[in-house]
Write a structure and sequence with these properties.
2 copies of one chain form a homodimer.
Chain A: E1 9-14, H1 18-31, E2 36-42, H2 53-57, E3 65-66, H3 69-76, E4 80-83, H4 89-101, E5 105-108, H5 121-134, E6 137-140, H6 151-156, E7 162-173, H7 179-184, H8 191-200, H9 208-219, E8 225-234, E9 239-240, E10 245-246, E11 251-262, E12 265-275, E13 282-290, E14 293-298, H10 303-313, H11 315-319, E15 324-326
Parallel strand pairs in A: 1-2, 1-4, 2-3, 4-5, 5-6, 6-15, 7-12
Antiparallel strand pairs in A: 7-13, 8-11, 9-10, 11-12, 13-14
Helix pairs in contact in A: 1-10, 4-5
Chain lengths: 347, 347
């Protein structure tokens, strides 16, 4: 094979939490192909600033972590930023604008970004306009939202002549995930605390409604009505995770459901269960249609790794995308981005 | 909702065998949305020529079937042709060129077209050049090749950080499929006849190697070596289908395997079993990677309907594609094309 002569894609990692660290490590690994290069890293955590990425993520890299995003972006002029700082679009709008203004495309894990047009139409419009003006593409993705409960559901309909409804179930053993996710699903708190925090808002899984909207959009179906519910899953017996212990009667996690209606029918139904001790994790898509489709990922899709995968796999697709704010249905068939290194360097 | 004001996509159906009839019927059904219009139909079968499509496919349409492709294409100037005449690219090259020269994009069920660059590089180059010159897109698709053993396998890797191998198994109960397919897999013949016909070539499933190449291409992996085998599946007891009876000891169908190697490893393995009496049909993708993925479509994907679905679902994607000879990995996330009619007209 002739070596790829194209210049490597210059990547900045913006945010070095658990997902950002995973993404940076993966970019460094794939950079051995010559197709990618990690050229900058941004984080505000004083424990990380001024250290090398190598030190922070446990890999080989002399890139120094900086808290000054503006400066990093101006200095290194990346082609693309992997952005992993917050779930909520209003909180990251300025960060995304920084990247876009610096001429970088953005792949973000912000859970409100995979389908932002309804919840944040103003921000969406602004990001779209700015991206087009700067000739870059911006997308929000991850395993969920971005794949397990939306893209996979759409793909399941890809050979149907008709679809009457789509039902997606994702059951995750939160006990195998990182601590922030266990906290996010309320593992260990009382049902009263759960209900109280739920009423205050901002609790539970962010992005389920974004997945719902993405599926409806992908099928070309207008949402006439939508319903959403979030309930605690209560531990029946003690559950221990590497990070915490949930006594029986306490909250093990969430059951988060979102449904979309058309002509009075429930046409898309998403059911997300994330709790510690879930014994039978699965991602399951049932399409009532012609032909009917019953698609399951047995054992489920392991979320932390998969979100890192989704972000990094989007790199070549976003680099080649039309400028603007993009969503999953704008991009080609998702697949692993495997610049040619795996077997060469494997023993 | 505001009605879609765009002009409908003008479609010609080229070929009215079982798949073409299904496609024409589906186009007519979706045409009720105003997004599509069936404007012509081509077939050489004297039993169909000069009849209306309505008569031939059992639906409402006054479009008259013609055997003169050139004339139909010149008269109706379609935006797009659904082409379903033959499995082999050299046999359809001239038909595709007719369509392209008439300024129509093409979605074809020709099994050698989903990845034609290696088997027919000259034809592929020619079609690509002509398509670009005429500003149209051409693609080969269907359920297999085009989805079950290639696109679905790629999608399964979409959230992986690394992939070491992909194994796809498709087990089809050919007894539930149309007669030509049962004949194609050799149902009812003796093992000797099977081996004889296999040696003469052109026997078995067309397109498995195309799927293999598509998966390898999608993962960015060069094929260093490829192996292919076709063996009969022998009936252990009598199998009856609506069309034929297979006595024990006769051929029930095929087991067709294709493998691609990289650095001495089998990295993609496709295993297609199509035989009458298969009791546990399934489409199964196993990704050895991070995270590992075990994805199954329980009961399998029913092929005849699914091929029709794949062809028609590609319509909006091909209309919006960049001109040229396209493959599945160039197109967006596959999903059902559902112009807004289903519930309105359903009781």
């Amino acid at each position: 094979m002739v070596a790829d002569k194209k210049a490597p894609i210059r990547v900045v990692q913006y945010g070095l939490g658990p997902i950002g660290i995973g993404a940076a490590k993966l970019v460094l690994e794939k950079a051995r192909s010559g197709r990618l290069e990690l050229v900058g890293a941004i984080d505000i955590d004083p424990a990380k600033v001024n250290k090398t990425v190598g030190e922070v993520v446990g890999a080989s890299s002399d890139v120094v972590v900086s808290s000054d995003a503006e400066k990093v972006l101006a200095e290194v002029q990346p082609d693309l930023v992997i952005h992993t700082t917050s779930s909520f679009l209003p909180q990251v709008e300025e960060q995304l604008i920084q990247c876009i203004r610096a001429g970088a495309s953005v792949i973000s894990s912000t859970e409100e970004l995979p389908y932002p047009f309804d919840r944040h139409p103003g921000i969406a419009k602004n990001l779209d306009t700015l991206s087009k003006k700067n000739g870059v593409a911006v997308i929000g993705t991850g395993v969920n939202p971005g794949y397990a409960m939306d893209v996979l559901a759409l793909v399941a309909t890809g050979i149907c002549t008709d679809v009457r409804s789509v039902t997606v179930t994702r059951r995750v053993d939160a006990g195998l995930r990182r601590l922030p996710l266990q906290r996010k699903v309320g593992a260990g708190i009382t049902v009263d605390e759960f209900n109280e925090r739920h009423e205050r808002g901002g609790f539970g899984h962010i992005g389920l409604v974004e997945s719902l909207r993405l599926v409806m959009h992908g099928l070309g179906w207008p949402i006439e009505k939508m319903s959403e519910s979030l309930r605690p899953v209560v531990a029946e017996s003690e559950v221990r995770t590497p990070y915490l212990t949930v006594p029986p009667g306490r909250v093990a996690g969430i059951k988060h459901t979102a449904k979309a209606y058309m002509d009075g029918h429930i046409v898309v139904s998403l059911d997300l269960m994330m709790y510690v001790g879930a014994s039978d994790p699965v991602d399951h898509v049932v399409v009532e249609g012609d032909p009917p489709i019953d698609l399951a990922v047995q054992g489920g899709i392991f979320g932390d790794t998969a979100t890192v995968g989704a972000l990094v796999n989007a790199i070549p697709q976003v680099i080649n995308a039309l400028p603007g704010l993009r969503i999953a249905t704008d991009l080609p068939v998702p697949r692993c981005f495997l610049p040619r290194i795996s077997y060469r360097t494997r023993s």
